[in-house]
Amino acid sequence: MRKLLLALFALVFPLAAYPQGTDVNGKKSNPHDLSGIWMRSGGDSGFSPAKDIPPLTVAGQAKLKTAAILAAPRNNLVKQVSNAAESNDLALGCNPKGFPRLLLDTTHDYHEIIMLPNRMIQLWQEERRPREIWLDGRAVPSDEMIDNLGPSWYGHAVATWQGDTLLVTTVGLDERAWVDSFGFPKSLNARVEERYKLVDPNTLQVTLTLIDPDMYTKPWVSDVKTWKKVARKDVTRRGWYGLFSQGEALCAPENGKPFVKK
Questions:
Q1: CA neighbours within 13 Å on the CB side: how many for 91?
Q2: Domain span at residue 94?
Q3: Is the residue at 4 inside a domain?
Q4: In the predicted model, what is the mean pLDDT of residues 132-137?
Q5: Percent of the chain scored above 70 by pLDDT?
C-alpha cells in the first residue's frame, strides 16, 4: 500500500521534484542542467541582510576595524569614507573582488554557466572572470593540499549533486579579499558552501553558508539569491551572441589608477 501511495503521489505532484517545461530559449528543462546566461533578480547585495550577520570573534572584530568602505556600514566597527581614494577596498584598484563577493555583488549584470561532463564553468561579465568548479568526484582539498596549492582569489571548488541541489564547496580563499562590499573579513581557513537549485526552467536560486571559526562565532547563512535566465535574443548585439557582447565590464589597472592611493 505504501508503495502504491508513493507512486500516486509522484504522478499527482511531479512539480515538487523537478522543474517542468521549457526555458526562455525553448530548451526542455533538466534539473541538473544549469547552463545558460543568468541575470541577478533578487537577494541582498551582501552575504546576508544585516540582521543575519553572526557575531565576530575577537580576531574578526580586529580585522573588520581595518576596513574603510564606501557603502553604508552594517557593523559599527567599520569606517565609512566619502570617496574611493580614502577606501582600502582592493577592488577599487582593479584587483579581483574574490569569492564569494563576486557572486554576491549586485552592481554587475550577467554571468553564464557552462555545464561540462566533469566541470561547471561560471563566466562573469564583471572582471571577465572564469570560475572552475569540479564535478569529477575529487575530494575537497585538505589542509595539506591547500598548503600545496596555495590561496587564490577564487579558491578551489568541488561540487556534488544532492538530489536536484548542486552543493559547491570552496576552500583555499585569499584572505585579502573581503566577503562582500561591506568589508567583512574571512580567513585562509574559511569554507564556503553554495547550494544551487532550479526552481523552474528560468529561475535559479542559490544559498550560501560561510564557515570560518577564525572570524565568526558560528556559520554565516545567507538569504536566497535569485537569477533569471536571459533569452538568447536579449544577449545579442548587432547579430553577435554572447555574454561579453553586452560589455565585458573589465576593470583594467589603467582604469583603476584614479582610485589608487599613492
A1: 23
A2: 45-241
A3: no
A4: 97
A5: 90
CA 235, 237, 242, 248 dihedral sign is negative
The residues, any chain, with a CB within 8 Å of residue 262's CB and separated by 6 or more, are: none
Collect contacts of 144-147 with beta carbons under 8 A, ≥24 apart.
146/171, 146/172, 146/188
Q: Is 216 helix (H, G, I), strand (E, B) or coil?
A: strand
For strands 68-69 and 79-80, give the pairing: parallel
Residue 247 within any structural domain of the chain: no
In tens, the pLDDT along 3-22 reads 455 454 444 444 445 667 99
SS3 state of residue 60: helix
DSSP calls for 152-209: BTT-EEEEEEETTEEEEEEE-B-TTS-SSTT-----TT-EEEEEEEEEETTEEEEEEE
189 within a domain of the structure (yes/no) = yes
Q: Under a CB-based contact definition with an 8 Å cutoff, are residues 153 and 174 in contact?
A: yes
Q: Which band of pLDDT confidence, cut at 50, 70 and 90, is reported for residue 1?
A: low
Distance CA 172, CA 141 (A): 8
Domain total in the chain: 1
Contact (CB, 8 A) for 215 and 190? yes
Give the integer Cα–Cα distance in Å for 87 and 106: 19
